[in-house]
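--- STAGE predict ---
source: upstream dedup step, 1 unique chain passed
mode: sequence only
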Amino acid sequence: MNVLTYLLIAVSTLCTLSAQLMLKKVIVDPATREAMAAGPTSFILSAAMHPFTWLALCLQVGGYVVWFFVLSRERLAVSFALSGSLFYILTALAAWHFYSERLTPYQWSGIIFISIGVMLIARQG
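--- STAGE serialize ---
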């Protein structure tokens, strides 16, 4: 696997992560919370009209376009494992940074073990 493939995997993963962070921002928005209390229809309409929902959708589509290039260059099992590991680590760090969410040492251990497993999967030979 060459450097460009790693870069494409990182870009696709970052698009997905950014989209998820924006969707979380939609959910914690007071207007969305209020609509959630009013019922599922109000919640769906409120979330669908939020600008970050649309930005998240655009980022997700952009990530899928990049992912097509990843799949044309590398095996699915290897590229998806790398993306997943990167996603787990970055999501935990981003949730901590942006939303003050904390993982337990037990949960961090799980992320580390998964990442070690991914490195073994990605290793050639």
